[in-house]
Specification:
With about 210 residues, this protein is an alpha+beta fold. It contains 5 helices and 6 strands; from the N terminus they run αββααββββαα.
């Protein structure tokens, strides 16, 4: 029941908001034996993905490399197509970049997943022409929930931190991605299976 100020409903909403921080007791899952080898490039899940697809004409073209454990390094270069304020990367686009980078961590588990919640902290402006270097890691897992965090640095892996992010992912069956796609596009993809790197019989789909 509301007290007229909206406070009660806000508190109820906040109690239902999922945290992106791994709770006490969360386990660090094992690195899957078929995860990309350390130092190798993590595949793009979809060639036309705005975040990582090489075929998207104005996308981020974010590239990531597997770390030794449940981590990765990667990044992208901000172009004129990525502006918000004049000469600066759009904040929403930076959130997209971290969603992409954090999502690629699921390759370490070989499990398809969707973003349930993403939090992004903008610390410094990111000018066009800048290479944003990203490091990301899995911080814990509770059943289907996977917790992650990342930082983005300006110009080099040792540059100033410009953006921080954390996200909660939920492992889903592979069919989730196809049940929600337009029929005509699925027809197109069947004719171009090379666009879908994540259709892999070795992917785990255990909830």
């Amino acid at each position: 029941m509301s007290d007229g100020t909206g406070l009660s409903s806000n508190l109820e909403y906040m109690s239902r908001v999922a945290s992106t921080v791994a709770p006490e007791g969360a386990l660090i899952p094992p690195r899957h034996e078929l995860a990309p080898a350390p130092g190798t490039q993590i595949p793009s899940h979809f060639g036309h993905c705005f975040g990582c697809g090489a075929l998207h004409p104005t996308g981020l073209h974010l590239v990531a490399f597997a770390g030794d454990g449940l981590d990765l390094t990667g990044g992208f270069t901000v172009t004129e197509d990525h502006q918000g304020a004049p000469g600066l990367a759009h904040g929403g686009l930076l959130s997209l970049a971290f969603d992409e980078a954090l999502g690629k961590l699921m390759w370490m588990l070989r499990a398809p997943a969707v973003t349930a919640r993403l939090e992004t902290d903008f610390i410094k402006p990111v000018p066009i022409g800048t290479r944003l270097h990203i490091t990301a890691r899995i911080t814990g897992q509770v059943r289907r929930k996977v917790y992650t965090s990342a930082e983005g640095r300006l110009g080099s892996p040792d540059g100033e931190i410009a953006v921080k992010a954390s996200a909660l992912f939920v492992i889903v069956p592979m069919r989730h991605f196809f049940d929600n796609a337009p029929t005509e596009y699925l027809t197109y993809l069947k004719a171009h299976p090379e666009l879908l790197a994540f259709v892999d019989p070795n992917f785990e789909i255990n909830p």
